[in-house]
Amino acid sequence: MGAALVWSLRRDPRALRNGVLVVLLGHYLLGSVALLTARSTELEVVTGVVLLAAAALVGLGLALLPLLLVVDGVLVLRRESRSLANALSLLAGLSMIGFPVVLVALLRHENPVTGALAVGLLTAQACAGLLFLAFATHTALYAWLARRAEARAVIVLGAGLVEGEVSPLLAARLHRAVTAIEERRGRTGGLPIVPSGGQGPDEPRAEGVAMAEWLRRHDIPAQDVLVEDRSRTTRENLRFSARLLEQRGVPEPYLIVTSNYHAPRAALLARRLGIDAQAIGCPTALYYWPSAYLREFVAVMLDHRALLALSGLAVVGMAGLAGLSLAAA
């Protein structure tokens, strides 16, 4: 398992399979530790105490998590626009609170249909938890690997303007891009930078143009700034920026700069588009991060339909087996 993880990381650190392999490796190591400690009474006692303490901390965290998500969701909706994306942490918290209630209600009826539904819900929760664990592991590992990635150019993904000017969120991305250039200047000399973003329906000008002005005001030479001002989506950001750099004779690899919650998905999208680029992120306001991170998780899962299909098969299979067993009992 360790060899498979090393091979996968060397092949492409952006791949989601890396997170899956880390989770599987962790499960294997825990099993190995359990087998080793079972041979010694003293080690078994120490391991039991450690596991009990860890289980208590995890249990406390899981008990508080729904309340924290609800509070955070309300805060996001009050400070940001009221949209489904911004309500994800609130919805996640409410679903975690309501799940045990629904489960108890189904089990009280004691018949094959409700029993199958209960088992299906438990399986769905387990699958969602494992997928989220793999995604969270992947994002943490990738953030550590990508921070020193080599690059011959930097692409900064746009965000909304405020009255035609760079917003605080966008300024944070630009600051991180400038820092990334300074970190790599000694190795590669000056790097071209592509501020990427088109003009939204509620914006007086293109995001790329406003970003370019900000960069020039912060001592980035004008000849190093290549403006991409036509994109409307992250996919277009990457495609148009890579094409612009290619036309200017700037070879890969590139470095994508965005917000920290968005960096793993941007890297995965670049991988799908065949662009040799890693992605790094700038810090995001703490209250905004849970909903944004959940949004990225949902988007990444929708791009990995095979994992969703396997999870769906597991849910249907377990529910069907439970229903048949209860009917035969």
SSE topology:
Elements: H1 2-11, H2 17-37, H3 41-79, H4 88-109, H5 112-146, E1 154-157, H6 168-188, E2 193-196, H7 207-217, H8 234-247, E3 254-259, H9 263-272, E4 277-282, H10 289-303, H11 305-328
Parallel strand pairs: 1-2, 1-3, 3-4
Quick structural summary:
It comes from Modestobacter caceresii. This protein is α/β, with parallel strands linked by helices and 329 residues long. The protein has helices at 2-11, 17-37, 41-79, 88-109, 112-146, 168-188, 207-217, 234-247, 263-272, 289-303, 305-328, and strands at residues 154-157, 193-196, 254-259, 277-282.
Tell me what the structure shows.
This is DUF218 domain-containing protein. It comes from Modestobacter caceresii. Pfam families: DUF218. The chain is an alpha/beta fold. The protein has a domain of 138 residues: Rossmann fold. It is 67% helix and 6% strand. The protein is built from eleven helices and four strands, in the order αααααβαβααβαβαα. A four-stranded parallel beta sheet has the order 2-1-3-4. Strand 3, helix 9 and strand 4 form a beta-alpha-beta unit. Helix 1 runs antiparallel to helix 2, helix 2 packs across helix 5 and helix 5 packs antiparallel against helix 11. The longest helix is centred in the first third of the chain and has 39 residues. It is globular and about 75 Å long. It starts with a helix and ends with a helix. The mean pLDDT is 87.
